[in-house]
From TrEMBL:
Domain of life: Bacteria
Species of provenance: Rufibacter immobilis
InterPro entries hit by this protein: Ergot_Alk_Oxidoreductase, NAD(P)-bd_dom_sf, NmrA-like
Pfam families the UniProt entry points to: NmrA
Top-level taxonomy: Bacteria, Pseudomonadati, Bacteroidota, Cytophagia, Cytophagales
Domain NmrA-like: 2-254
Entry protein name: SDR family oxidoreductase
CDD domains: TMR_SDR_a (cd05269)
Length: 289
């Protein structure tokens, strides 16, 4: 049997972390990228080849899954993500893939749940209707969101703004998600039909996150709670579509209410070591802030 491991969404936060973790263990990795140019950095890693995946071109999926033994299925944050996930699952089954790992989200199992959770649940349910061995990864909010969304204001104003009150979040470092995915893709035995809720080691409030950034950067970084309406207006002014604005506000509301603060030992159970702390994350990414 072939030992090619496919990672879709490979240039994204979790996809790139997974490709790096697989490559470091000597795996033969096929990185499924939306754009070959964006994938150039991945191609430099040992054992990594690129394949283009475009959901608008189903033939590209058939090519990407050819000869693949295990695959990580990641879909982007779009309104048609369920249809995209179904395309990936169908392509994996048609190609005879042995085991798929699906990147879902914490709370996907909660009914009725928020919009994003519902979309992930639909994708999870679809996998379960198939003759496919699978593992579901349900991470909490990524620490790397601070790099992508808050680094600008932290750098320029020594502050970050979120509508989260004093709600705590059990942020996870996306590198740990990649390591968990890599472990299961390389050694799927024992993970079939399992769902792992992946959290960091602590649940932190905005003020606690600000304190860590202050320690690491040597500057005083402030957390500013902002009203939901102000965030909605800002997102609308940035041109975000309504579905995206409302989905993101739902996520923040969950955090504000304290529902994103649960901790699990699933990272430790799969990897045999503790997940990274927020402090470790902030030190690694210090230059971004
Ligand atoms: N962020 C969080 O805190 C969080 C928490 C829990 C779960 N999640 C889940 O994580 C998933 C996203 O993972 P991520 O943050 O690692 O992804 P990401 O960084 O947003 O990257 C998305 C990837 O999908 C690719 N892509 C976008 N449109 C595409 C298309 N039409 N055809 C093919 N590829 C396409 C992108 O490539 P290009 O950039 O080249 O377009 C990129 O490689 C979502 O399902 C989200 O719900 C996120």
């Amino acid at each position: 049997m072939s030992s090619i491991i496919l990672v879709t969404g490979a240039t994204g936060t979790v996809g790139s972390a997974t490709v790096a973790a697989l490559s470091s263990q000597g795996a033969k990795v096929r990185a499924g990228v939306h754009s070959l140019i964006k994938g150039e950095n991945l191609k430099r890693l040992p054992g990594v080849e690129l394949v283009e995946i475009d959901f608008a071109r189903p033939a590209s999926l058939a090519v990407a899954f050819t000869g693949v033994s295990t695959a990580l299925l990641i879909t982007p944050f779009t309104q048609d993500q369920v249809a995209m996930a179904q395309q990936l699952i169908d392509a994996a089954q048609a190609a005879g893939v042995r085991h798929v790992v699906r990147l879902s989200a914490s709370g996907a199992e909660a009914e009725p749940g928020i919009q994003l959770g519902q979309w992930h649940r639909q994708a999870e349910e679809y996998i379960k209707t198939k003759e496919l061995a699978y593992t579901l990864l349900r991470p909490t909010s990524f620490m790397q969101n601070f790099v992508h969304q808050q680094a600008g204001s932290i750098k320029e104003q020594n502050a970050f703004y979120l509508p989260m009150g004093n709600g705590r979040v059990s942020y996870i470092d996306a590198r740990n998600i990649g390591e968990v995915a890599a472990e299961i893709l390389l050694r799927p035995e024992g993970h079939d039909g399992k769902a792992y809720t992946l959290t960091g080691p602590q649940a932190l409030s905005g003020s606690e996150v600000a304190r860590i950034f202050s320690q690491v950067t040597g500057r005083t970084i402030a957390y500013q709670d902002v009203p939901e309406e102000a965030v909605r207006t800002a997102m609308q002014q940035q041109g975000l579509p309504d579905w995206m604005t409302e989905s993101l506000l739902e996520l923040h509301a969950i955090s504000r209410a304290g529902y994103a603060s649960g901790l699990t030992s699933d990272v430790q159970a799969v990897l045999g070591r503790e997940p990274y702390t927020f402090q470790q994350f902030a030190e690694t990414y210090k230059d971004c802030f």
